[in-house]
Backbone:
């Protein structure tokens, strides 16, 4: 099993920035691809960003491209999401996810390839 714990959420004004972190523990050697998803009230969970094991193949949803940056530190078993130029529509619970598919060694995983999920951290952007 792999445990994922997110942190860094909070309340920020539109145009501001936040940095989310996701600490992984347990059988982290079995995890290759990692990513971020979000779910706003009344909406389905949606993909935000994903990254492969070496960190050189990030992938972003069109809605966050150019504003969000995903990165990872494998030595610390930690995933990050730097969020800049935040908008009220970015308000959601943000979830960290990890997948055991070996495809994650070379590429970002597809949304249905994630096996483990964190509990989520709330991000609220005020206008």
Residues:
């Amino acid at each position: 099993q792999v445990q994922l714990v997110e942190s860094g959420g909070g309340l920020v004004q539109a145009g501001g920035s936040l940095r989310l972190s996701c600490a992984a523990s347990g059988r982290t050697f079995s995890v290759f691809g990692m990513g971020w998803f979000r779910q706003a009230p009344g909406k389905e969970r949606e993909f935000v960003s994903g990254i492969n094991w070496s960190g050189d193949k990030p992938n972003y949803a069109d809605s966050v491209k150019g504003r969000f940056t995903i990165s990872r530190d494998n030595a610390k078993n930690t995933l990050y999401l730097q969020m800049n130029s935040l908008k009220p529509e970015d308000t959601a619970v943000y979830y960290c996810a990890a997948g055991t598919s070996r495809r994650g060694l070379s590429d970002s995983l597809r949304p249905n390839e994630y096996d483990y999920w964190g509990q989520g951290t709330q991000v609220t952007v005020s206008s």
About this structure: The chain has a mean pLDDT of 96. The radius of gyration is 14 Å.
